[in-house]
Structure formats: structure tokens, C-alpha cells
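FAQ: What does the model actually see?

It sees only this:
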Amino acid sequence: MFLSVFDVFKIGIGPSSSHTMGPMTAAGHFLNLLRQHPSGRQAAAVGATLHGSLAFTGKGHATDRAVALGLLGWTPAEFDFDAAERQLEELRRSRLLRPNGLPPLRFDPALDIVFDYGPPLPGHANGLVLSARDSTGAVMLNETYYSIGGGFVVTARERETPPAAADAVPWPYPFANASAMLRMARESGLSIADMKRANEIHLRTPEDVERGLARLWSVMNGCIERGLSQEGELPGGLHVRRRAARIHQQLMAERRANRSQPHAAADWLSVYAMAVNEENAAGGRVVTSPTNGAAGVVPAVLRYYLDHCIGAEPDKIADYLLTAAGIGGLIKHNASISGAEAGCQGEVGSAAAMAAAGFCAVLGGSPEQVENAAEIALEHHLGMTCDPAAGLVQVPCIERNGIGAIKAVAAASLALRGDGSHFMPLDNCIEAMRQTGEAMNAKFKETSLGGLAVNLPEC
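And it is asked to produce this:
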């Protein structure tokens, strides 16, 4: 099993990897499918139907906007907000798409994107069906897509029969679970980051891997910086105000006056994470870590390491990201990182496990201590629901990232106080998360039909 660090960490836009980035990507894939269709030149119109969580929280997550942007040719990684807005406005007026290689296609976002609030499609809670019609209105092509978390998209066919190409590659260290990961580390004498790097170099040159990792951190850190400088109200109608900039100003003032309390370390972690998730909620540029809803935890802990830890070394940024990605890949492979499938334990829980592992590694932890750190962090997120108010990635998501970052650091610190031996293996904890998510009522899995989402102030 191998999942590249550049798949775990994807540069994209907010507010949601599964509800924004995934549907945008699916729409682009569908246009390519239509271009390859024998009768593609006869297409006259396209439409989309959103199912399950994509329907229930699609408005709050801007899923309809994402589908339209994908049909306009935009991808999450290559996105210009101002240009995209101009094209969306033109589309609303003309109700016409003009994709390269295809005839003009009728498409009215207000009518041709349908929110189906019935039962979800069988393959995943995040399903969407894209279709093309000819001039008589007859459906000439349709495809079912599932947005499975972290910006990953698969067709119904791929969901039923996953491609085996990646498994056929002779990866140097093909660990599919934590037990195998630790065994390979013992046999090779390598760290988790070194094994992950060896796998990455099997696909890319060492220089490309290092440049790619540096770019990921540059975007993550840039997102923190933007979040720390922006003020005002977040979009969506909940009237949630940004707080990261104000908290950061307070922390800086306390530091200058030498009046910081010992527990201010938790505030620094929180403010870095909240800065990212405020940017995400505003539709800004973020890095899935492993999702948008949990995008603040991994960057916050790395920023905390660099700015606050004694002996921090910038050269270890790559090791932090590689280690975190190794753990994220295990969780995705053996359970889920999708809030619509596993609740927030699959998002912030996974992110905290990844950050704890990376933090433990750069502080000198052994592979056994790193695995222990990830297990502690994930264990103490088990059962967490995904219940965003009004379907917006704001309440409780922004604060939840801050607390996740704090838990990650605490988990790594506990693991470093031991020798790596512990009672509950990470593999068992991941399986417990999978079972918990499977048994969790759908109203607590990113549908905004239960929990905090239905217990709102009456004013």
C-alpha cells in the first residue's frame, strides 16, 4: 500500500475537501469523459445531482458552486478567485458552458444542480451523478462519482473494484499497516520519514520530492500568516467573526511585556490552527491535512515546533511532513478520513494522529514512539461527531482544529516520556475508529441533522 505525501497533502481551496474540491474535480473528470465519448460532439446540455451529505450540507460547503467551477474548467490546485468569479457571473447570465473540445452546453446552475435529500447512494455518503443530454433531451452519458474525503474522487466502478496498479509497483517499503511499518523500520534501521522518502523517490527525483515538500510547507505557512492578519465576519450567514488575528495580537503583546502564562503554549497552537481554518471557511487557499475541515492541525503543530521549541531545525520540516503523511495513509487505507463516512474522528482525529507522529519524529522519537504518539492522539478523538452548524465549516470546526493541535502535542510528549511500548497498537485504534464510524448514526456524519447543528441559539 502506498499513498504519496502529495496525495495526502493537496493544495486546494476551502471550505471543504470532500464537498468543494472533490465535486470540482469530479466535474472536470466528467468533461474529459464526455470529450472521449464517441458522440460527445452531439452533447447539448449537462446537469448534476447531489446525494447524501453533498445534498444536506452542500449549500453551506458551496458544493453547487464547486460543480459549476469544475465544469468551467477550474481545478482546486490551479485556481484564481477573481477570474473564477467573473466566469461564474457570466455563466449565470448566459446559462451556457463553452468547454474546449466540446460544443456549447446548456447549464443553469440554479436549475441543473439538483439536491437530492433522499437516501445516499450505496457506495459512499458523498455521491454525485453528472449527466449529459443531446438536443432532444435524451441522456447520452452519465457517471456516478464519490467524493471520499481529502479531495479524493472515485467513480462508482472504481469504488466497487479499486485499481490495483499502485499495489503492483515494487515499493521499497510497502507497509499497509503500522505493524508492518514498525517491522520494516526495525529491519532497515530507517526512520518512518526515511522509508516514506524512499517510496516517494521511487516515483520522483529526490530534488522533486524536496521541492514539493518545501512548497507544501510554504502554502501551509502562508495560510497561517493570512489567517493571522485577517479580520471581519466569515461568509455563510452565521455571523461568525474571525478571532485568530485578535488572539495573535494579544499573545504578541503578552510576550513583549514578558507576561505570558505557561499555558500560553496551548493558545499559540490554537491560534495557528484557527488561522488556517478561518481561511478555509472563507474559501481561501489551504492544504488538505488530510482534509480541509482538519487543515489547521498539521500546520499548527509544525509552526509551533519551528517557532517555540528549543533546538528546532528547519531542515526537519520534510521529515515532519513525510512522517505525518505515512500515518495519514495508514488511516485512509484501513479506515476513513471522510467526515461523512466516519465523523470528525476521521478528520480532526486523523490530523491529530498525523501531527503527533510528525512532532514526535522531529523531537527525536523512535519509530515505536512515533507510532505510540499517533495512537494516543487518535484514541482520544474516537467517537467525535461531524455536526457543522448550517453545514458551514465554522462551528465547531475552527476551534476543534485548535484543540486537535493541542492534543497532538500532548500525545507526542507522552509518547516521548516512554520507550514506545504501550498497550493499544495503532492498528487496533484505527480499526476501532472504522467500526465506530460505521456504527455512527448518519445524522452525526456531516449531514447537519444532529448534534450541535440542531442545537443553535434561538436569537
